[in-house]
Amino acid sequence: MDVRSATPDDFEAITEVARKTWHATYDELEADMIDQTVDNWYTDDSMPLEAPGTIVLVAEDDSELVGFTHAVAQGDKADILRLYVHPEHQGEGVGSVLHEQLMAEIEAYDVDRVRSFDFAFNEASRAFYEGLGFEQTDEGEVEIDGEYYPEAVYTHDLT
To answer: How confident is the model at residue 3 (pLDDT cuts 50, 70, 90)?
Structure first.
């Protein structure tokens, strides 16, 4: 498996991984809403590769994009906004490898803490981040198509 920085040519595959993962993971959400959200959130506009502090990495297995992650480092913190692995490749260590490389790149920004966000009902995400030393430190809400869903905030202090 290779992990590298994303390029503009990766966004079609990124969107497909996001779509497959959302449909496989978020049973609580309607299929049409998932498709609309993925189409809006997983684009080069929503993950601008050239923006200061932005890190977008992709994982490839035999030249197939099987996962990606997106973080933004600003000031003393970095926020992991997305980390998705295609459902057919979950459990193979793709997420762990992506996270490890992401953390190495985040450390170059000299941040004190890293946060990650996901739906509060995503138990797999909770287990993944807690297994990496993150703790749930807050809850909020994320708005999708006029509906509000509980969001968990996980934090890992680097100091």
So the answer is: very high
The region, left, alpha or beta by phi > 0 then psi within -120 to 50, assigned to residue 7 is beta
**E strands, the chain, in order:** 2-5, 54-61, 64-74, 77-85, 113-119, 135-144, 147-157
The pLDDT confidence band at residue 106, using thresholds 50, 70 and 90, is very high
> How many whole angstroms separate alpha carbon 52 and alpha carbon 134?
25
To 5 degrees, how large is the angle CA 73–CA 43–CA 110? 10
**Cβ neighbours around 14 below 10 Å, total:** 23
pLDDT category of residue 46 using cuts at 50, 70 and 90: confident
Q: CB under 8 Å to 110, separation ≥6 — which residues?
A: none
CA 73, chain centre distance (Å): 14
Instruction: Label residue 78 left, alpha or beta by phi (over 0 means left) and psi (-120 to 50 means alpha).
Output: beta
